[in-house]
């Protein structure tokens, strides 16, 4: 496959636990770096719940870098020793400015997630570059990718939709995957702001009009971005559930979605689709922050 090198990945950051040789995030980073000729940056951390013996973590990282040096154009590695870990990870993403940061999912108990902000949730909210969270048993190279957009009337939504599609297409081109476009309409969330319309918003007529409005917006967005109708999916229902269902039906390995920066009260009341999708950990999820700068040509 001939890649457009102007859009191909040049710097990949992979965040992994020490001693985790069968890490899906590391396998994915290695595979993409080998295909694109990208610089592979490893940042490894010693899991506080299962630390390696003194010196063993650095030895493991050195061995891993040596192995990868024969597989990719260039690779370097460092241990993350600073605390707290999630702040150190965020700082590395900010400092290194990778084209893509890849991280293995860190499973945390429901009680810990309730008491504290989960590590992956924190990075989803604060990372300034595209972040790809990969579970333990996910395929090294996704074969089908879904870009989830929200074609609303606001300029901010339009800009974020463009970045979501750009990054999804960039990834799909890099790994030779099939790309699909999706939008989920939740009739409860997407009601007009007018109080009178809110009162009648759950009626069948209103639901039909809302769906027709969103379908028109979605079709115009898909046409503008060069998608064939067979690649487009308008879904009805709660976004995270509907998108997961679509991925199951078409066999998608990766879901690309956006993330708006919200105040704590907004998160409490409205939730976050991207955080919900990462929380279920059924497939790899790439999150595009709303403040990301377009990649360089």
TrEMBL record:
Listed InterPro entries: UspA
Major location category of this protein: cytoplasm
One cellular component (GO) term of this entry: cytoplasm
Entry keywords, A to Z: Cytoplasm
Coiled-coil parts of chain: none
SUPFAM superfamilies the record matches: Adenine nucleotide alpha hydrolases-like
Alphabetical list of CDD domains matching this protein: USP-like
Subcellular location: Cytoplasm
Chain ranges of the UspA domain: 143-289
Function description: Required for resistance to DNA-damaging agents.
Family classification: Belongs to the universal stress protein A family.
Name used for this protein in its record: Universal stress protein E
UniProt organism field: Hydrocarboniphaga daqingensis
